[in-house]
């Protein structure tokens, strides 16, 4: 039985490396997809984790199965779609940070539907984690995500949702309506500051916390290098971030979410879990790619001790 089930789209990643002396861009192959990133972060912090996803019958799909096996993530309920590919994306880096180019139209994950949701597995978990991307990749995937949330709620399983707004997937008004409907069904919300500004029209952290607390009892407003604002209906606390020499923030928010859920599953108080997750997210920015730099528990503990 998994402590944490993560539902979403795995995507093979190609991450731009420092330009060669002759001006060419080289790309490092890796793995991504917010749910898979969070699952690996949670597993590397000691949680029992499972994935709920669809993959293509292709080399990228098999590489994910190999990855999850190596990381101890249960992929027993991941289905293979013989008629659709595993999605891929490219990450480039510039003065404004990282930029993404996605090739996911018609992907295996986008064909997930409510009938594909493994209800017994969800009922036996402690946390179900998903994101705005899980809602945005297709109508059927959105329906599947809401069905999974409903199953979890009926069984008393905690639901966590990361806003992960991607406006290339859908218009802002539709995204806000669907994401906020899901947040209203969740126990834990992980909005990022940039997402929240777009989704709510607000630009002050406390006002954003007010907005999301009307929907969800525990809000972790991710503030990037500034840390996180932990907000409940009983109080709020800003947990500062860690100063590191970041090179690539791809997957840092997913690392935060997965690491925090792992610590909550282990029995930590939410503020302690947030400090741990801040440290894990900071360490994940020290290398290129979404997965390779995700730290293991010993590295996080070392940074916390310093």
Structure description:
The chain is built from 11 helices and 14 strands. It has one domain (4-10, 34-83, 113-305): 3-Layer(aba) Sandwich (UDP-N-acetylmuramoyl-L-alanine:D-glutamate ligase), CATH 3.40.1190. The two termini are 35 Å apart. Helix 1 (34-44) packs across helix 9 (252-265). The model has no long low-confidence stretch (mean pLDDT 95). Helices cover 39% and strands 23% of the residues. The chain has 306 residues and is α/β, with parallel strands linked by helices.
Give a quick set of tags describing it:
306 residues, alpha/beta, UDP-N-acetylmuramoyl-L-alanine:D-glutamate ligase, 8-stranded mixed sheet, 4-stranded mixed sheet, 11 helices, 14 strands, globular
- What topology, given as strand order, has the largest sheet? 4-1-9-10-11-12-13-14
Largest sheet: 8 strands, mixed
Briefly, what CATH class? Answer: Alpha Beta
As a whole number of angstroms, the C-alpha radius of gyration is 18 Å
Based on the coordinates given, report the CATH architecture: 3-Layer(aba) Sandwich
The dominant shape is: globular
Low-confidence stretches: none
- Within CATH, the superfamily carries the name Ribokinase
Number of strands: 14
Estimate the strand proportion.
Answer: 15-25%
What's the end-to-end separation, in Å?
35 Å
Give the topology, please:
Layout: E1 4-7, E2 11-16, E3 27-32, H1 34-44, E4 49-52, E5 54-56, H2 59-71, E6 79-81, E7 87-94, E8 97-103, H3 119-124, E9 127-131, H4 132-136, H5 139-154, E10 158-162, H6 172-183, E11 188-190, H7 193-200, H8 205-213, E12 218-222, E13 228-232, E14 235-239, H9 252-265, H10 270-284, H11 297-305
Parallel strand pairs: 1-4, 1-9, 2-7, 5-6, 9-10, 10-11, 11-12
Antiparallel strand pairs: 2-3, 7-8, 12-13, 13-14
């Amino acid at each position: 039985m998994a402590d944490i089930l993560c539902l979403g789209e795995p995507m093979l990643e190609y991450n731009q490396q420092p330009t060669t002396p002759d001006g060419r861009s080289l790309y490092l192959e890796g793995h991504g997809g917010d749910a898979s990133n969070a699952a690996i972060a949670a597993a590397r912090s000691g949680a029992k984790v499972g994935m709920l996803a669809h993959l293509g019958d292709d080399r990228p799909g098999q590489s994910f199965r190999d990855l999850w096996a190596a990381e101890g993530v249960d992929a027993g309920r991941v289905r293979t779609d013989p008629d659709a590919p595993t999605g891929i994306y490219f990450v480039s880096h510039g003065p404004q940070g990282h930029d993404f180019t996605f090739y996911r139209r018609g992907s295996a994950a986008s064909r997930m539907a409510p009938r594909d949701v493994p209800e017994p597995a969800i009922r036996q978990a402690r946390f179900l984690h998903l994101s705005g991307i899980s809602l945005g990749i297709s109508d059927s995937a959105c329906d599947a995500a809401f069905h999974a949330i409903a199953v979890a709620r009926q069984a008393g399983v905690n639901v966590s949702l990361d806003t992960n707004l991607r406006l290339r997937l859908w218009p802002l008004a539709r995204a806000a309506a669907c994401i906020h409907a899901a947040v209203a069904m969740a126990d834990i919300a992980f909005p990022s500051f940039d997402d929240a500004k777009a989704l709510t029209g607000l630009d002050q952290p406390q006002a954003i916390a007010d907005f999301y607390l009307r929907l969800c009892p525990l809000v972790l407003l991710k503030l990037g290098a500034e840390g996180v604002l932990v907000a409940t209906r009983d109080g709020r606390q800003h947990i500062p971030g860690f100063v590191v020499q970041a090179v690539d923030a791809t997957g840092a928010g997913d690392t935060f979410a997965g690491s925090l859920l792992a610590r909550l599953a282990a029995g930590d108080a939410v503020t302690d879990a947030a400090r741990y997750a801040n440290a894990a997210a900071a360490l994940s920015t020290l290398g290129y790619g979404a997965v390779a730099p995700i730290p293991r528990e010993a590295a996080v503990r070392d940074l916390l001790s310093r």
